[in-house]
Structures are given as structure tokens and as C-alpha cells.
């Protein structure tokens, strides 16, 4: 069986950026053979949240390559040049392209690596391959849509699988009910509810705000009611001012990693609202305007249920019934909805389930500065995590901000490991070389 130097699980922006980095390293004489496995049938980046008029919240300069290598073929600017749109984009006078355009850029970049990516396969197991007392390789088992299982061997592994939808405990009993779905599947699922009259959006972040506005326009003719439900007292805007934005600089990663556990916690708490539960100010103003126009007209079509939490959600024939707890009055009330959208964020710990068979070889689930899990001496493969190291590397870990530079750091770790392995092999071979 062929042995790869590196297998990547997932082929989203992080692993595309890594594939680009490794490809450009080949030009310097470092030939690391990589292969990627992606469960989606083709490349798609948050396909069910590609809403009309949705824009990026991060500068196009923080693309897959620019921060690492501005002269790369894979920069967003070169993409525009290749598509003959560079001058037109300049005339837009913006740092924030539409989400549709950035998805097209990512698709363009991913297409360069079709030869080393298996789409439509879901990794189901990561197994140790032993040579004596050592784990020398990893066996990656994946299954395609025809239920055919594929096995591949690798010397190193990188996991870049993004987040898994977070479902609040009160909605756990409704798993499988088509009237309740996460924002991750919004566009796919909302089309199944063309005649909904009452819709709940649960959450207070960018996705919740974007979905609220989309529903407002989507059901404009039918005058469907949309309730925006959140525990917070107000929708707070994301702080993208220059000094705050410095926390997303690549050198801030060093600062966070080298801080104590207590200092890291304080940093994360202080800047939490730069990335979570904080929509763009323009979007907040649009929502406020919707509610203001309702007051002018004297018609309450939508409701902003601030300081409310969903205590219970029950499936009934006529809809999903909520027991809503008003945190201001400490009173409960019920409301029934035809559809419920959970804009409740993501969990980023699914890698632990994938790595369960080799978990005993890790001292803990901590990573080093190069995003590599700490392992025991007998475990030779390097296992890297992308997008699951926020607690150790800072809030930028799940964002595009450090993606290009992070892949350079991982590539260097791979090169160093490869050089050390080659050196050790040469030393072992020396006695026999001089046997004569």
C-alpha cells in the first residue's frame, strides 16, 4: 500500500492553504507528498449560508497565501486577475468581497488539487500501524457514498474538519424533526417551508442576524412572522477597530501561546465579542430599521425577544412549541412555530472522536506551537490540528486571519521531522556501510 507523507482530513480553506504551501515548498526542493479526504461530494464553503448580499468580515488580503507569500499564484488578487475582474474589484473600493465571490475564489484554488483529494469520502477511523513497539504509520479508513471502504497509510496527519453544529440541550429531543434545523443547513432546509407563517431564529451572532434579514425579505409577500430570540439584552456589534484587530495578527499567536493558562483565559474572555455573538454594525442597523418601520406602521410582524431563553421545545402536529423564559420578569410563556433555525454556533472537538483508537499515545490533548499534538516517544507520526486550538493559540485560530502563516509553520514542522527521520536512518545504516 502506498505511504503518503501527509494525509489531511477535510479540504476546506485550512487544508487548501496547506496544500498550496506544500506545493510551493516543492519549488524549494522539499517534496512532501500529501493527500486529502473530504466528505462533501465537491468543494463547498458554507454553501447553505451563501446568502444574497452577505459579505466577508475579514479582509481579502487574509486569503490562502498573501500573508505568507504575497507573490503566490494563489492570492485573491491573482484570482481576480485570472478571472479578468481585478480592475472592476478595485473600483468597488472595498476590502470585503461578497461571500459568493470568496467562495468562488476558494473553489478556484481547490480545483488545482483535484488530483490529490478524494471527495465524497468520510473518514471513519484512524488506526495505529506498529513496527515492533513503535507506531510508525497511521492507517486512515474512509467510506464513500457507495459504502465502499478505502484505506490509506500516512506518516503524518492533519485534521481540518471545521466545527460541528452545536445543538442546545433543550432541542436534543427534536433531532430528526425537519422543522428544526441548524444554520449550517439553512438554505437547504428553508426551501422546504415555503408557506411557514411563524419562524423562530435562536441566536445572537452574525449568522442569526443574516438569517433574520433573509427571512424578512424571503417572506415579504406572505408577511410571515419571524421571532429573533436571544438571551442577551442587546445585539452588540463586532469590534473591528485597529488596536483590537491586532489580536488577529500572526505575532499575537506567539504571545497567546507563551502566556499562562490564566492569562490565556483572560485574553479570550476580554476579546470574546470580537468573534462571537457580534454581528456587523451595518447589519444591526438594518435589523433596527426593520423594527422601527414596524413601529411607524403600527404593525408587529416580527418580534425581538431579547433576554429570553428556550426552556423547552416540544414537537406537536401544528408546529414546534417553545416554553420561553423571560429573564427580565422570570415569567414563562409558550409560542408555536412552523420552522425553527438554530444559529447557535459550533463545537470544535469532533477530532477527539476520530482519534479515539490512538488516544492512549497522547500525553494529553495539548498541542505545541506548531499545532502538533503532544505524543509519547513510541508514537512517531505527527498529528496536527487546524481550527481546534483556540484555547492555546487564540481567537484567530478558527478564522482566516492566520491560515496562510499557520500552514507555513506546519509545513516547516513536517520538513524538520522528515529531515530528522532521514538523519536517523542514515546513522542506523552507517555500521553496515563500513562493515567491509
TrEMBL record:
Q: Which domain of life is it from?
A: Bacteria
Record key words, sorted: FAD, Flavoprotein, Monooxygenase, NADP, Oxidoreductase
EC identifiers of the protein: 1.14.13.195
Q: Name one Pfam family in it.
A: Lys_Orn_oxgnase
Classification via InterPro entries: FAD/NAD-bd_sf, Lys/Orn_oxygenase
Gene Ontology annotations of biological process type: intracellular iron ion homeostasis
Q: Does the keyword rRNA-binding apply?
A: no
* UniProt feature coiled coil, ranges: none
Q: Which cofactor does it need?
A: FAD
MF terms from GO for this chain are: monooxygenase activity
**Which Gene3D superfamilies does this entry report, sorted A to Z?**
FAD/NAD(P)-binding domain
Q: Which SUPFAM superfamilies match?
A: FAD/NAD(P)-binding domain
Q: In which pathway does it act?
A: Siderophore biosynthesis
Which family is annotated? Answer: Belongs to the lysine N(6)-hydroxylase/L-ornithine N(5)-oxygenase family.
Q: What is this protein called?
A: L-ornithine N(5)-monooxygenase
The gene is pvdA
Amino acid at each position: 500500500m502506498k505511504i503518503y507523507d501527509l494525509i489531511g482530513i477535510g479540504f476546506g480553506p485550512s487544508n487548501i492553504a496547506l496544500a498550496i504551501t506544500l506545493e510551493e515548498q516543492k519549488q524549494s526542493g522539499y517534496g512532501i507528498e500529501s493527500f486529502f479526504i473530504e466528505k462533501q461530494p465537491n468543494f463547498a464553503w458554507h454553501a447553505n449560508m451563501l446568502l444574497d448580499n452577505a459579505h466577508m468580515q475579514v479582509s481579502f488580503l487574509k486569503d490562502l497565501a498573501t500573508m505568507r507569500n504575497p507573490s503566490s499564484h494563489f492570492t485573491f488578487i491573482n484570482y481576480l486577475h485570472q478571472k479578468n475582474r481585478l480592475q472592476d474589484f478595485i473600483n468597488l473600493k472595498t476590502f470585503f468581497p461578497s461571500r459568493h465571490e470568496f467562495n468562488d475564489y476558494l473553489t478556484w484554488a481547490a480545483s488545482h488539487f483535484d488530483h490529490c483529494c478524494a471527495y465524497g469520502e468520510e473518514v471513519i477511523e484512524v488506526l495505529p500501524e506498529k513496527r515492533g513497539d513503535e507506531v510508525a504509520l497511521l492507517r486512515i479508513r474512509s467510506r464513500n457514498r457507495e459504502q465502499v471502504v478505502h484505506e490509506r497509510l500516512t506518516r503524518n496527519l492533519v485534521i481540518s474538519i471545521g466545527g460541528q453544529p452545536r445543538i442546545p440541550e433543550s432541542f436534543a429531543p427534536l433531532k430528526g424533526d425537519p422543522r428544526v434545523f441548524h444554520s449550517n443547513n439553512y438554505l437547504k432546509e428553508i426551501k422546504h417551508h415555503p408557506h411557514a407563517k411563524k419562524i423562530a431564529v435562536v441566536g445572537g451572532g452574525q449568522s442569526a442576524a443574516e438569517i433574520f434579514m433573509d427571512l424578512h425579505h424571503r417572506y415579504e409577500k406572505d408577511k410571515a412572522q419571524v421571532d429573533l430570540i436571544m438571551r442577551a439584552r442587546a445585539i452588540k456589534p463586532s469590534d473591528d477597530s485597529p488596536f483590537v484587530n491586532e489580536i488577529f495578527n500572526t505575532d499575537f499567536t506567539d504571545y497567546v501561546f507563551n502566556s499562562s493558562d490564566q492569562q490565556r483565559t483572560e485574553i479570550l474572555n476580554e476579546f470574546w465579542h470580537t468573534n462571537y455573538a457580534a454581528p456587523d454594525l451595518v447589519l444591526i442597523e438594518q435589523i433596527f430599521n426593520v423594527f422601527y418601520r414596524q413601529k411607524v406602521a403600527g404593525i408587529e410582524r416580527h418580534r425581538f425577544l431579547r433576554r429570553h431563553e428556550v426552556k423547552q421545545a416540544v414537537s406537536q402536529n401544528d408546529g414546534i412549541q417553545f416554553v420561553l423564559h423571560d429573564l427580565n420578569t422570570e415569567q414563562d410563556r409558550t409560542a408555536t412555530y412552523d420552522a425553527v433555525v438554530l444559529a447557535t454556533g459550533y463545537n470544535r472537538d469532533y477530532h477527539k472522536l476520530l482519534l479515539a483508537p490512538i488516544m492512549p499515545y497522547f500525553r494529553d490533548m495539548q498541542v505545541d506551537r506548531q499545532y502538533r499534538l503532544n505524543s509519547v516517544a513510541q508514537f512517531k507520526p505527527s498529528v496536527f490540528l487546524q481550527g481546534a486550538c483556540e484555547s492555546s493559540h487564540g481567537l484567530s485560530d478558527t478564522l482566516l486571519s492566520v491560515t496562510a502563516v499557520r500552514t507555513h509553520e506546519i509545513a516547516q514542522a513536517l520538513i524538520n521531522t522528515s529531515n530528522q527521520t532521514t538523519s536517523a536512518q542514515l546513522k542506523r545504516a552507517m555500521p553496515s556501510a563500513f562493515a567491509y
